[in-house]
Amino acid sequence: MINFRKVLFQSNSDIGAGSEPEMTKTLQREIYLARNIQTKLLNGEKPLLPTGEVSGVSIPARLIGGDYFDFYQLANGKIRIIIGDVMGKGIPAAMLMILTRGAFRTAAEATEGPGETLTAMNNAMFKDLRTLRSFVTVFCADWDPKKGILVYANAGHILPVIVRVNFDIIEPPGIQGVMLGGLPEQVYKEAQMKLQEEDLVLFYTDGIIEAKNRSGDMFKLERLVGILVKNCHLQAEEIEQKILEDITVFTEGLPQRDDITMVALKVGKEMDEISSLNSPLMVP
Question: Which conformational region is residue 122 in: left (phi greater than 0), alpha (psi within -120 to 50 degrees), or beta?
Answer without folding.
Answer: alpha
